[in-house]
Design brief:
Layout: H1 2-54, H2 73-85, E1 90-91, H3 92-103, E2 113-118, H4 131-139, E3 143-144, H5 155-163, E4 171-176, E5 179-181, E6 190-191, E7 200-201, H6 204-215, H7 227-236, H8 240-244, H9 249-268, E8 277-287, E9 295-305, E10 312-313, H10 315-319
Parallel strand pairs: 2-3, 2-4, 4-8, 5-8
Antiparallel strand pairs: 1-9, 6-7, 8-9, 9-10
Helix pairs in contact: 3-4, 6-7
Length: about 325
């Protein structure tokens, strides 16, 4: 009897943990599922980024960047700062997809379109995620019409040469505009470049032109060895005093620079290349601190053709809030 009692007691003691095992198994399963879901989310995010770089489907997309919850305090501050100074700014991929979605209505596709851009020569404009970098990769090549500051220095002759490379009965698409950098602390006009320990100016040429005009020192008005900077300085010199009185001079300066680039682009662009469409997409390219993706503020989006020279304004329809 004693042995039987002990055996029964041992069986009961052994049964207790067995009854608790299902709850432990459920907890372990839930934990495993959480890990799997997290891993799947990371893989999807990585695949999405890879798809963004490799192929861009022509569909509308959200203007959301990385969720703010995944950004540090300084990155969130930068995000808010840019939204305040450049309302309507979007990620490069968002601008690209929305533009292509709208252009389908006008039979503008990758296969029948020649792409060019008039943006600053600064290498940071080629960083992954910027509109110009994405467009160049999407079309496979680009014709550079611009130089420092983003002005289309190629002029009428350069535009004529470029536009006559268009496919037969094809279209011309140009992205143009200046750029501005932001530091990790939200300082406009400053950017920390890869491999450097100190901030530098962005756009350096536009800011240099502004400083040269404001200092009033001697400089050659038409320096043959500095033609692009001479032209940029000449176009901005009448705006510098107004810029200096702005709440944020660097932000005000890039808006003035944009108007200068837009005026120069409209002065040289034409539809003499054939019956196809001329598409102009202008704005301000915003270099966000790494690893945040660059943004673009659309300020001009028009379509015109030789048979219909009056521009069709698509800006509000495509990028209006």
């Amino acid at each position: 009897l004693g042995n039987m009692a002990m055996t029964s007691k041992c069986a009961m003691d052994a049964a207790v943990p067995r009854q608790q095992r299902p709850s432990r198994r459920v907890a372990m399963r839930l934990t495993n599922w959480s890990i799997c879901l997290l891993a799947a989310g990371l893989l999807l995010a990585r695949a999405s980024v890879k798809q963004t770089d490799d192929s861009v489907p022509v569909t509308a997309t959200s203007n959301q960047d990385l969720q703010l919850a995944f950004l540090g305090i300084k990155e969130v501050k930068d995000y808010i700062e840019v939204e305040a100074y450049f309302p309507g700014a979007r990620t490069g991929i968002d601008v690209m997809r929305k533009a292509h979605w709208a252009l389908r209505k006008y039979d503008v596709f990758r296969s029948n379109t020649l792409y060019g851009q008039s943006v600053c020569s600064d290498e940071i404009n080629g960083d992954r995620g910027h509109l110009t970098a994405l467009m160049t990769k999407y079309y496979g090549r680009t014709f550079p019409l611009g130089g420092i500051g983003g002005l289309p220095y190629v002029g009428k002759t350069g535009f004529g040469a470029f536009s006559h490379h268009v496919p037969d009965n094809g279209n011309v698409l140009i992205v143009f505009g200046p750029h501005i950098g932001f530091s990790i602390d939200g300082e406009a006009g400053k950017f920390l470049r890869r491999g450097q320990a100190k901030l530098s100016t962005a756009c350096g040429a536009v800011i240099a032109a502004y400083n040269q005009c404001m200092e009033g020192g001697y400089y050659v008005h038409h320096d043959r060895q500095d033609l692009q900077q001479s032209r940029l300085r000449r176009l901005l010199k009448h705006s510098c005093r107004e810029v200096s009185q702005a709440e944020n001079p660097m932000v005000a300066l890039v808006y003035k620079a944009y108007k200068a680039v837009e005026e120069e682009m409209l002065a040289i662009a034409n539809t003499d290349f054939g019956p196809g469409k001329l598409v102009l997409l202008g704005g301000i390219q915003i270099n966000m601190p790494h690893p945040m993706r660059g943004r673009f503020l659309p300020l001009h989006f028009t379509v015109r053709a030789k048979k219909h020279p009056a521009p069709i304004d698509l800006l509000e329809w495509v990028f209006g809030e």
